[in-house]
Amino acid sequence: MTELKDRVALVTGAGRGIGRAISIALARAGASVVVAARSEDELSEAVKTISSAGGKAAAVSVDLSHRQQTFDFPSRAIEPYGAIDILVNNAGVGSSTDPRPLADFNDEFWDRTLAVNLTAPYMLSRAVLPHMLSQQWGRIITVASINSRRGSVHGCAYAASKHGVLGLMRSLALEVSSCGITVNCICPGPVATRMNDLRIRYDADRLGRDLKEHEQDLTLVGGRAAPEDIAPMAVYLAGDQARMITGQAYNICGGINMA
Fold first, then answer.
1. Model-level pTM?
2. Residue 258: band (very low, low, confident or very high) from pLDDT cuts 50, 70, 90
């Protein structure tokens, strides 16, 4: 597929999981992809995978929990290909790192979660808008969560940040929809990633359930999605065929949330 030929995409949190799958899919569709994450080793592997399949990719390491790195990051991300046409805000901090009830919540973890899940998408979106506005074309896609629509037991920071990013993206969609720029969210349910592995183990223990039975019962379809189940929606939203779709939030959750 070449529907994204001559487009440049930036994907954060691209070292593994959903971000890696989206990066590979965008490259397969013809985009040149800038992959960003904290781990240089994981980024190198992602670039190698894309390049070996005939795609184009460049890696930029960044820790979006640090405000200065986030502030400096856009100019570094633009260097490889000179512009960003498609932004995929995927990097995230999950509740599994430090799950606990609100009464005992860790303030530092709250700040870090909002910095990565909400402030970074705000700053990166603002940084890529001048180029998108100048060419009257752009795609901003944010990987939110079904927890942008509901609460999360022992995960208040995660749910709050995901509710917030949904409001942020819908507000931005209102501002730029007449400029050839679409802004949408993807809301995955449980996905088989390292981060979600920790969460479902925590919940199984908390509920006194067998881990395999708990995992199987997470969705109506049964089990969890794979990262590759999320990527096709990102590719679709990034293309010209999705020009009339903006301000939307698509659930990919195996039937958990039907809103």
1. 0.96
2. confident
pLDDT of 1 reads: 63
92-117 as b/e, with b when 16 or more CB fall inside 10 Å?
bbbbbebbeeeeebeeebbebbbbbb
Please indicate whether residue 250 is annotated as part of the active site.
no
Upper half-sphere CA count for residue 70 (Cβ side, 13 Å): 22
Domains of the chain as residue ranges with CATH: 8-190+228-252 (3.40.50.720)
3-state DSSP assignment of residue 120? helix
Residue pLDDT, tens place only, 61-99: 999 999 899 989 999 999 999 999 999 999 999 999 899
What tokens were used for 150? 């509901």
147 Cβ contact partners less than 8 Å away, ≥ 6 residues apart = 155, 158, 159, 162, 163
Parallel, antiparallel, or unpaired: how do β-strands 8-12 and 56-61 relate?
unpaired
- CB burial string 199-225: b at 16+ within 10 A, e below: bbebbbeeeeeeeeebbeebbeeeebb
Catalytic residue among 81, 122, 158, 250: 158
